[in-house]
């Protein structure tokens, strides 16, 4: 599997969240990659970039972050559409 596009999205999310100075949030509706595959891709991304964010896979979402900074990745359009407006970055890919 080519993970280039996924890693570009992770990089965009990570840099956007970090630029918020400690309280950033991002949301990605993953249409092309399963959440279980994304766990492996994120683990690889974390190692490659020396990032110590945690990964937690729940029912229809994956949480990736640390303390008050983090991203939610989901495969549910309903979950994506229902998220609050304070999310700084929403990606539909």
Give a description of the structure.
The chain has one domain (4-92). It is 40% helix and 27% strand. It is built from three helices and five strands; from the N terminus they run H-E-H-E-E-E-H-E. It has a five-stranded mixed beta sheet. Strand 3 (61-66) and strand 4 (69-74) form a beta hairpin. The longest helix is centred in the first third of the chain and has 16 residues, at 4-19.
Question: Mind sketching the topology for me?
Answer:
Blueprint (H helix, E strand, L loop, with lengths): L3 H16 L5 E5 L5 H15 L4 E4 L3 E6 L2 E6 L2 H6 L6 E4 L1
Parallel strand pairs: 1-4, 1-5
Antiparallel strand pairs: 2-3, 3-4
In short:
With 93 residues, this protein is α/β, with parallel strands linked by helices. The protein has one domain. It contains three helices and five strands, in the order H-E-H-E-E-E-H-E.
* Gap from first CA to last CA: 16 Å
| Overall SS class | alpha/beta
Strand order of the largest sheet: 2-3-4-1-5
Counting DSSP E segments of at least 2 residues, the number of strands comes to 5
How many H/I helices?
Answer: 3
Number of discrete domains: 1
Largest sheet: 5 strands, mixed
In terms of per-residue confidence, which ranges show pLDDT below 50 for 5 or more consecutive residues? none
- Succession of helices and strands: HEHEEEHE
Gross morphology is: globular
What is the rounded Rg?
A: 12 Å
Helix content: 25-40%
Provide mean pLDDT, rounded: 94
Strand content: 25-35%
